[in-house]
């Protein structure tokens, strides 16, 4: 979570699940989005209460865990206590109110205005979603209030006083990374809500939360893997799109390509190129709205009044039109945010400032794999342009492959020789895991009492998540049908009393093995490596069952 925050912690959505139910624990979540626009969890918290002091402590603790790096934007529901805590702990952070929560609050608080032919809810949503100019917004809001005689409504007065945190004319310069408020928090809370009841044991709650987080991470990896398998689809062949496809993640490239497609319909209404900073008025065919765009060809900068880059992190169609007018055919580096690139996750745990911790080995593998892919895909593409470069790379590839195999073999041998199995610890671990699973199953059954119980004796089967797991399941099935045991035997293990290994010199790893005297039911398979003999066997007894051993 710390590593995720260091890469994508510019926008954070915060929510507490118990604010709508007094029967649940005070469960808080900090959520963001990654370079594929998928939700990621930064932190979770169990709170004693929801006072100003508790929120201040929570936000300070969160920043301390995240190397004291505050986000650019902090989303939450409308709450004066949270607003005060954010302003005190994160004074440089833009606090935004979730517009989606405002709509639901309006339906709940003013539900009598949503019945029949009353158009209040429709007009209220229009004030949130449609009006981008301040004068237009204020005029429409006042007309709505006067039309429905709501001048004395306290809730609406408070909402309007905080308009800078949710109304489009004021928040279009606040970076949101495309997040829609706290909706991702609500999705997470729905997965843990049944375990937040006070009567549920805290250990079972924590186990369930860990399972939810692991499932989400697995889904995130699947989405990232699938995105790498797909080649970008070009609607128009253009240098700037080629650059974007090589740089942006799949989802962001699709959004950028839509802007580039609209740019084809853009035209310049007026232009003033007298000074070093040019001023343009840009519009789109069949659309009345016009936008002011400022561009500097010398510094290769561009800024549009729609503020899409400042809000979402990629250029709009109006800015692309002005770049084209200034004969700039590629995106300047300043307009490519690292958080939206394919390899935004190349940062490793050792590079997080002020943090010392141990993380999963698979994270390092994934990070190294992503970085190497980017380099070598480009190299192979360039080498394929002519026969000579192809042959050079092919020759170096064989030599490089041998060196890599030698290094991996050496590392594997060291790991094998240092491995010391501990049977007692293994059995204890398996026992604890089994107990945890049984307890979790009891809770799952109690929380889903309303559902129809499955038939007695029916075995539940977990569906494999992807093609790799399917292959592993098949392999495990074959191994279970033909059970085998692996033993590593050194010379000291071959005692004279063991007739099975008489005549075998274990000190010589390449001497032929004498199979005489072995039980006819044995299915022997030997591998010799570094002075060890690895013996695989399964023994069928007279009653038809299979036993394992020597």
From TrEMBL:
Domain SWIM-type: 280-327
PROSITE patterns found in the cross-reference section: ZF_SWIM
Keyword field contains Transcription regulation: no
MF terms (GO), sorted A to Z: zinc ion binding
Extent of Basic and acidic residues compositional bias: 442-456
An individual GO BP term: regulation of DNA-templated transcription
An annotated GO cellular component: nucleus
Compartments, record wording: Nucleus
Residues spanning the membrane: none
Disordered: region residues: 442-465
InterPro entries: FHY3/FAR1, MULE_transposase_dom, Znf_PMZ, Znf_SWIM
Family recorded in the similarity comment: Belongs to the FHY3/FAR1 family.
PANTHER family in the record: PROTEIN FAR1-RELATED SEQUENCE, PROTEIN FAR1-RELATED SEQUENCE 10-RELATED
Protein name: Protein FAR1-RELATED SEQUENCE
Organism whose genome encodes this protein: Urochloa decumbens
Organism lineage string: Eukaryota, Viridiplantae, Streptophyta, Embryophyta, Tracheophyta
């Amino acid at each position: 979570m710390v590593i995720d925050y260091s890469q994508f912690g510019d926008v954070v959505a915060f929510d507490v699940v118990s604010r709508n139910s007094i029967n649940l624990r005070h469960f808080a979540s900090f959520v963001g989005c990654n370079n594929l626009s998928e939700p990621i969890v930064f932190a979770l918290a169990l709170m004693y209460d929801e006072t100003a002091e508790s929120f201040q402590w929570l936000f300070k603790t969160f920043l301390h865990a995240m190397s004291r790096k505050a986000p650019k934007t902090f989303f939450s529901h409308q709450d004066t206590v949270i607003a005060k805590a954010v302003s005190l702990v994160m004074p440089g952070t833009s606090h935004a109110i979730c517009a989606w929560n405002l709509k639901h609050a309006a339906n709940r608080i003013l539900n009598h205005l949503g019945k029949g032919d009353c158009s209040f809810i429709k007009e209220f949503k229009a004030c949130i979603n449609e009006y981008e100019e301040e004068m237009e917004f204020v005029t429409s809001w006042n007309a709505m209030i006067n039309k429905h005689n709501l001048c004395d409504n306290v809730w609406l007065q408070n909402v309007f006083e905080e308009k800078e945190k949710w109304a489009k004319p004021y928040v279009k310069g606040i970076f949101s990374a495309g997040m829609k408020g706290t909706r991702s928090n609500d999705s997470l809370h729905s997965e843990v809500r049944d375990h937040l009841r006070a009567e549920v044991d805290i250990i079972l709650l924590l186990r369930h939360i860990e399972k939810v987080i692991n499932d989400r991470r697995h889904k995130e990896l699947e989405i990232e893997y699938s995105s790498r398998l797909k080649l970008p689809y070009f609607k128009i062949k253009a240098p700037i799109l080629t650059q974007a496809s090589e740089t942006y993640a799949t989802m962001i490239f699709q959004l950028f390509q839509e802007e580039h497609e609209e740019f084809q319909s853009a035209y310049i209404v007026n232009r003033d190129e007298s000074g070093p900073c040019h001023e343009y008025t840009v519009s789109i065919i069949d659309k009345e709205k016009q936008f002011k765009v400022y561009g500097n060809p010398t510094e290769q900068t561009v800024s549009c009044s729609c503020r899409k880059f400042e809000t979402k992190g990629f250029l709009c169609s109006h800015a692309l039109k002005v770049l084209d007018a200034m004969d700039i055919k590629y995106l300047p580096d300043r307009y490519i945010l690292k958080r939206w690139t394919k390899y935004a996750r190349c940062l490793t745990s050792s590079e997080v400032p002020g943090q010392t911790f141990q993380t999963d080995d698979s994270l390092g593998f994934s990070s190294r794999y992503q970085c190497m892919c980017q380099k070598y895909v480009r190299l192979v593409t360039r080498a394929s342009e002519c026969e000579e470069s192809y042959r050079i790379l092919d020759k170096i590839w064989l030599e490089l492959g041998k060196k890599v195999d030698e290094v991996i073999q050496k590392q594997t041998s060291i790991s094998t020789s240092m491995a010391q199995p501990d049977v007692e610890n293994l059995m204890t671990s398996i026992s604890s895991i089994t107990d945890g699973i049984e307890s979790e199953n009891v809770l799952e059954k109690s929380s889903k009492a309303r559902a129809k119980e499955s038939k007695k004796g029916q075995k539940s089967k977990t569906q494999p998540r992807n093609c790799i797991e399917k292959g592993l399941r098949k392999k495990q099935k074959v191994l279970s049908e033909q059970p085998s045991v692996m033993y590593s035997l050194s010379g000291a293990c071959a005692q004279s009393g063991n007739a099975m290994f008489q005549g075998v010199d274990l000190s010589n790893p390449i001497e032929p093995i004498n199979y005489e005297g072995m039980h006819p039911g044995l299915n022997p398979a030997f591998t010799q490596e570094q002075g060890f003999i690895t013996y695989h066997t399964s023994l069928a007894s007279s009653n038809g069952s299979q036993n394992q051993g020597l």
